[in-house]
Amino acid sequence: MTTIAVTGASGHLGRLVIEHLLTRDVSPADIVALARTESKASDLAERGVTVRHADYDQAETLDAALEGVDRLVLVSGSEVGKRVEQHANVIAAAERAGVSRIVYTSLLKADESSNPLAPEHLATERALAESSIPATVLRNAWYLENYTGQIPQYIASGAVVSATKNAKLSGASRSDFAEAAAVAALQDSEGQTYELAGDTFTMSYLAEVVSALANAPIQHHRVDVEELVTGMVEGAGMDRGAAQFWAAIDTSIAKGDLHTESTDLADLIGHQPDSLEDAVRTALESD
Predict the structure, then answer these.
(1) pLDDT of 191
(2) How large is the C-alpha radius of gyration of the chain?
(3) For the chain, which domains are there?
(4) Residue 284 class from Cβ within 10 Å (0-12 exposed, 13-18 middle, 19+ buried)?
(5) Which of 48, 52, 171, 195 shows the greatest Cβ crowding within 10 Å of its Cβ?
């Protein structure tokens, strides 16, 4: 019996990883859902999944959480600026617990990207390489949900605003990335790095798709970085530092950092990932 633990089990990606493990006939008794707030994963417990408290910031919770775990899916933390230390806590606890493999969710082209999210992912990859535990690194491209979650705003404003210079980027749904993590956790191979992405599109095409499927006039408004920052600060009330951070992601996209022709995702999951159209349609149907 192989016991697989998944961190962030109460979050979007971690929960989907568990769902895909169950879909692939992994017994609930062989899955450990690690969550900062256990009550948010109570439905998983009702289905026979073991739910344990695990807080990336509290190393003392991690030893008990990883007891008896063979393989660990380390879903990257959500707190930018804290993730290197948090992930190091998990890796150290995994070593103490005798975990045999780690699957980590990183960022596309983490070793060459100018994306401001990349440094923490790369630091974690290096920590994994230096650890005693073999690791599989899944470098995820952009979640399609990063954009479909903004559809109401696009419709209300009639615009998709970006400083991407309409460069190509690659994305996939959370479910597809989660399925890849589940597959990687079940594989016996180790030490591999996958560049994961599905559909390739531009912001202009995003505007076209949303416009067509929502039956609403939406255009892509190309702006420079400073205009984007000003819009986020004055229009959305965002802190200027935060606005500059998110604008830097558009700058990274403009450089091609989130675009790849890799087929690793489709190869791993055994089918074509969801398209942008699929994701937009799903988002509209769920409203």
Answers:
(1) 84
(2) 19
(3) 4-140+173-196+261-270 (3.40.50.720)
(4) middle
(5) 171
